[in-house]
Design goal:
This protein is mainly alpha-helical and 138 residues long. It contains six helices and two strands. The chain has one domain. The longest helix is centred in the first third of the chain and has 33 residues, at 9-41.
Length: 138
Amino acid sequence: MSSVSYASIFRRLAAFILDLPFIIILYYLCDGICFFFQDAWGLMFGTHVIMYVIFIIIYYCAFECSSLQGTIGKLLIGIQVQDSHDDSMITFTTALIRFLLKIFSILFGGLGILLILFTKKHQGFHDLIAGTVVVKEK
């Protein structure tokens, strides 16, 4: 029986930093698409921001519920998101709930993120509510 090793806040931060170039690329992709089609589609100012938010949600949720069980940054660092009850892959719905709750974790002064330092399984507020854990790859 192997023991589970939970990812520290530092590994998770490193994964986020490695995800930043992809997040920035998504922003410019959305901006370029909206600029290119603004006359043809009559896109209004700010549409690229809405499109960007949707792309970011899809980026995080699709990767975390895939067989990779994490974003590109998490993959490079060697950590995965799992269901906290049975160590299985999470669903898209769970990934979406986790993502939205992560925003609240950050908005409230980062207290939901800092919770990672004080819980046995290194879970933030978003992990506790969504029923997920972030573990080192086996």
